[in-house]
Design a protein that fits this description.
mainly alpha, globular
């Protein structure tokens, strides 16, 4: 990894941390102003959103020296995939937004948007890194397909977390219960229409945003290369 790459990554990390600090600042001001912890879970969900980025960067650093099929890299890939939905899950926290009378509703809307933005950007940054590596390893078409599949799985995981209250760590703590709930909608699809509507709804949202961001990054890189000529 070159010095320029390290510097760019460090600058991105500092910017992401500063942006997350803004979200936490909104929450802290609300807690101090209202003397209530109504939306404390936003901080927890944002902390979880940082985990997939940490796993992705750790994995990408190792892939520069070892092959993907090394057991440590496979473990990091599983951990990244297991925790990635948490980055996008924050969007579903919007169902808790309501006029509490403690503070301006507009303030709460702004705070929720801040947390949702940071969750999404953390997830997308980690996905982009893995996506780019997959392009180098497997080619563009396969990489695009796998990136879309990951977003589909994340959309399904949002349903599991919001409606069935499963967490990422339940893969280890209660794998059989999780497998049962995951398989049930596919065994009896007519009895679980909400599974498919929720999954497709979030898949459309996550994919469309990622596609725009992906093209913007490509455009920025192309302009940067042209400016150097």
């Amino acid at each position: 990894m070159g010095a320029t790459t390290r510097t760019s990554r460090d600058q991105l990390l500092l910017t992401l941390m500063a942006s997350s600090a803004v979200s936490l600042g909104f929450l802290l001001v609300r807690i101090l102003a209202t003397q209530t912890w109504t939306y404390w879970f936003l901080a927890w969900n944002l902390a979880l959103a940082w985990l997939p980025l940490a796993f992705a960067w750790w994995l990408l650093a190792r892939l520069g020296k070892t092959r993907w099929h090394h057991w440590t890299n496979l473990l990091l890939t599983v951990l990244w995939l297991a925790f990635l939905p948490n980055a996008f899950y924050i969007a579903s926290d919007m169902i808790h937004l309501r006029a509490t009378g403690d503070i301006s509703l507009l303030y709460d809307v702004t705070m929720f948007i801040s947390f949702m933005f940071n969750g999404f950007i953390l997830g997308y940054v980690s996905l982009y890194g893995i996506h780019a590596r997959l392009r180098q390893t497997l080619g563009r078409n396969v990489a695009h397909f796998l990136a879309g599949l990951v977003l589909l799985l994340c959309s399904f995981a949002i349903y599991l977390g919001r409606y069935l209250r499963w967490n990422s760590w339940d893969i280890i703590l209660n794998p059989f219960g999780l497998i049962f709930d995951v398989s049930e909608p596919f065994v009896n699809p007519s009895s679980h229409p909400q599974v498919f509507t929720t999954t497709l709804m979030f898949f459309a949202l996550l994919t469309s945003i990622y596609a725009v961001g992906y093209q913007l990054v490509r455009l920025a890189r192309q302009n940067s290369h042209e400016a150097r000529r």
